[in-house]
Design brief:
There is one protein chain. By secondary structure, the chain is of the alpha+beta class. Helix content is about 20%, strand content about 35%. Strands 11, 12, 13, 14, 15 and 19 form a six-stranded mixed beta sheet that branches. Strands 20-21-23-24-25-22 form a six-stranded antiparallel beta sheet, with helices on one face. A five-stranded mixed beta sheet has the order 2-3-9-4-5, with helices on one face. It is elongated.
């Protein structure tokens, strides 16, 4: 199955790995399990009473020294960045990570073992759209430690990074468009590294107890100490990009933008992710949710256009003439000879295309679903049509009455039974599925 980046994904089968944790040095087993749409990355501590959970989100980040640590209630999980980077980089949006300790295994110090787990588990598409934040204006942060990160608009997620060590040692640069293929081949295998002069201070703080030359690269002056040779000549900057991907994923939604980072670290990455969250919230407040009437209310075309993004020549609803509770709705479309599609469908024998009748049904159904829960301010995407039948032609001068009954509304997915009538006679019908996403 082709990977559709507009849809959410989870792993198809559970998969596990066991190893030593980097900072605690304890033995740890994690299991990556499938999760429902909109779950995100949920860490579950099966070693604790009642198996409490912690969501991998920027709001739960409490420590950023040499690793990213999340805390939610009584649950604390250390060093999540490599695992979260692997999930995000490989296109997994939802997963439950069961743990029997407070830190995942460090494995070989890279994200490659987690990528292998995900590939073994398989990836399955879900009936829900991803939430994407398109960067519209530059976002910039600087930290006292010398980190500088800017995000500018771009058609996809791109990261350009410069790694700068103490006194400028091992300064490296690289830039990648982030896709599952690029992540697995060019980024995931890059291992964590540490400068020799930082080792003792970290150990004095009780960190890197499980560190060794088997799971980290040590830089001593101009020499590189490692059990194996460098996997890339610029392995250090690639690992910085890996960390960035993991930390940015804590935003809870994908971004389309070009991240330009100089000397990034977990603290700066977290600050950037918080800035991204604030920018996203600010962008959403700029589009106030429309006021959708309830009960038997009527909506004219101006009110319809405040809810639907469609405009000429693709707005197929002139007004809503009534709601019946929360599950039924009737819309109207006046079909005139001025419709642009009549020029070619067909010259001398004008007939409204059936596909546009289906589109009219979908637009009315979207209005009905947007009334549900907290969907105000969102937009509907047409996903599928089943049992569609066209019984009579629709001609200039006809008025379509579009009847919609919502049969399923779960999270951001809805199903509806729809029909179009002219003068009390059914002209078309179908069962539609559509999704609701953020604007």
């Amino acid at each position: 199955m082709a990977f559709d980046p507009s849809k959410q994904h989870t792993v198809e089968h559970p998969v596990s790995i066991t190893g030593d944790a980097l900072h605690t040095g304890e033995k740890s087993t994690i299991k990556i399990c499938p999760a429902a749409p909109d779950t995100g990355y949920l860490f579950k501590r099966i070693d604790l009473p009642d198996e409490p959970t912690a969501l991998a989100t920027i709001g739960n980040v409490k420590q950023v020294e040499r690793a990213t640590t999340i805390v939610e209630g009584s649950v604390k999980v250390h060093t999540i960045e490599h695992l979260v980077a692997a999930l995000s980089g490989m296109g997994i949006d939802n997963a439950i990570i069961e743990m029997d300790a407070n830190e995942p295994p460090i494995a070989d110090g890279s994200a490659a073992p987690f990528v292998e787990m995900i590939e073994k588990a398989g990836c399955i598409e879900q009936d829900a759209f991803t939430t994407v934040f398109d960067i519209r204006e530059p976002i910039h942060i600087e930290t006292p430690g010398g980190s500088i990160i800017t995000v500018v608009p771009h058609k996809s997620l791109k990261i350009s990074c410069t790694q700068v060590g103490p006194d400028g040692r091992f300064t490296q640069f690289n830039s990648f468009e982030i896709t599952p293929e690029t992540f697995a081949k060019e980024i995931a295998p890059a291992r964590t590294f540490v400068f020799y002069e930082d080792v003792k201070p970290l150990m004095d703080k009780g960190l890197i107890r499980g560190g060794s030359l088997e799971n980290a690269v040590v830089i001593r002056e101009e020499s590189v100490l490692s059990k194996e040779a460098l996997r890339y000549k610029d392995e250090f900057v690639r690992h910085k990009i890996l960390d960035l991907i993991g930390d940015i994923a804590l935003l809870g939604r994908r971004i389309r933008g070009h991240v330009i980072a100089v000397k990034p670290g977990h603290g700066a990455n977290a600050e950037l992710t918080r800035a991204l969250g604030k920018s996203y919230d600010r962008m959403r407040t700029m589009v106030p949710p429309p006021v959708i009437p309830s009960g038997e209310a009527v909506m004219d075309v101006n009110e319809v256009m405040r809810i639907l993004p469609h405009r000429y020549p693709f707005l197929m609803v002139d007004r809503i003439i009534g709601f019946e509770g929360d599950l039924k709705c009737v819309g109207v479309k006046s079909v005139t000879m001025n419709e642009p599609f009549f020029q070619g469908h067909f010259p001398g024998h004008p007939v409204m295309p059936g596909v546009l009748q289906v589109e009219a049904m979908a637009q009315v159904a979207s209005i009905l679903l947007i009334r549900q829960g907290d969907n105000a301010g969102k937009i509907g995407y047409f996903m599928s049509a089943n049992k569609v039948k066209f019984r009579k032609p629709v001609l200039p001068g006809d008025t379509l009455f579009i009847h919609v009954e919502l049969t399923q509304s779960r999270r951001n997915i809805g199903k509806a039974i729809c029909k179009c009538e002219v003068n009390g006679t059914m002209v078309s019908e179908g069962e539609l599925m559509f999704g609701i996403v953020d604007r």
